[in-house]
Recover the amino acids of this structure.
């Protein structure tokens, strides 16, 4: 990295950190979760406005580390036994929350006159919930450990895994025009299998790590060993064909069950506070405000399609909350499933690269993804169950 590239990276990193904290503070002062301010400052500092946070490889890498560490922290704060107890309800929410948005996105795109392959990709882009966005808001609202929070978290994890299967299938359709059922089942087995194996194998490894750390004297060994454990678990997940964030989440679940779980959570929190905000700023920075100008040729059709996709994207996920059972707030669960964030952007980008999404449809999907992302924090704040801690 040359001096120019280093300077650009350092400026972007500093601007993202300071901007996230400043706008996060402003968001909290008006009664909204800090993540909403981080998303908005990303738009302000991003390439389409001030340009202080360009989407370079370096800043994107920091953002990826940020979301991995965020999911590691979420795993540390998650009660595995409670997560297992709500597994049935979470699975039901996840499945309904994929089927309804997919069907809605497909039908809206076909009604707009686009071909079947394009409609399939659009529907797929609306299926997966962004676990990063939702978990951060749940944490800020002190709802992560609640039954509703655990159902949302379990459903979002299942969504991510199922989303990989959907992505593999639609990519194969775009490339070959057909689907190999065996490949789809293999992808599903690898993704779910990794999570189970990671927890089973990780338990004894986590205990060994804690015993080693307990005997060490070097400064910072606890946080360094814990972060390394999380990053290696994320690498293992990626190599196994699952999502890296699933590996980081599993690492948190494992270390939380050791006798140093609370110590690790406390030690990791300042590191997360540095890297995670950059992820949300980068999500906001990917919004191109030029798409929002209806007078630009082609934008009006894209904006109308985006509006339709936003409606089905919000309604489909919100309705999924009613698939949960027990004494829970189903409207809160439905709201927690709404954001698409980085997951929907990945689908859109691959669809564009494969030629499945023409430019107006690509723009519409991107706008719908961001609309669902930005609407979620205030909606969760408003729908938080009565009696929940602030």
């Amino acid at each position: 990295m040359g001096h120019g590239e280093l300077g650009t990276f350092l400026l972007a990193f500093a601007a993202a950190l300071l901007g996230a904290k400043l706008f996060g503070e402003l968001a909290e002062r008006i009664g909204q979760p800090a993540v909403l301010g981080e998303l908005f400052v990303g738009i302000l500092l991003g390439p389409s406005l001030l340009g202080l946070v360009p989407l370079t490889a370096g800043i994107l890498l920091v953002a990826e580390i940020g979301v991995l560490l965020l999911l590691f922290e979420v795993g540390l704060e998650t009660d595995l036994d409670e997560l297992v107890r709500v597994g049935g309800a979470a699975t039901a929410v996840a499945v309904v929350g994929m089927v309804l948005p997919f069907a809605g996105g497909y039908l809206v795109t076909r009604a707009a006159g686009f071909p079947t392959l394009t409609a399939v990709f659009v529907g797929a882009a609306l299926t997966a919930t962004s676990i990063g966005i939702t978990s951060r808001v749940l944490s800020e609202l002190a709802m992560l450990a609640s039954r509703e929070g655990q159902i949302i978290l379990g459903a979002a994890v299942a969504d991510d895994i199922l989303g990989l299967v959907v992505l593999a299938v639609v990519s194969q359709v775009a490339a070959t025009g057909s689907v190999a059922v065996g490949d789809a089942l293999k992808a599903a087995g690898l993704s779910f299998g990794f999570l189970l194996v990671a927890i089973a194998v990780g338990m004894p490894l986590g205990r060994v790590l804690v015993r080693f750390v307990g005997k060490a004297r070097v400064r910072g060994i606890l946080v360094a060993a814990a972060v390394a454990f999380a990053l290696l678990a994320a690498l293992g997940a990626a190599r196994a064909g699952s999502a890296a964030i699933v590996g980081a989440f599993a690492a948190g679940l494992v270390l939380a069950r050791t006798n140093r779980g609370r110590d690790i959570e406390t030690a990791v929190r300042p590191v997360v506070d540095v890297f995670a905000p950059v992820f949300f700023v980068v999500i906001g920075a990917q919004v191109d405000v030029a798409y929002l100008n209806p007078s630009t040729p082609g934008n009006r059709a894209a904006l109308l399609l985006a509006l339709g996709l936003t409606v089905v994207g919000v309604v489909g996920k919100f309705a999924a909350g009613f698939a949960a059972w027990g004494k829970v707030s189903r409207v809160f669960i439905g709201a927690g499933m709404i954001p698409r964030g980085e997951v929907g952007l990945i689908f859109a980008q691959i669809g564009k690269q494969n030629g499945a999404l023409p430019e107006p449809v690509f723009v519409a999907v991107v706008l719908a993804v961001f609309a669902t992302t930005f609407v979620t924090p205030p909606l969760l704040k408003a729908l938080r169950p009565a009696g929940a801690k602030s």
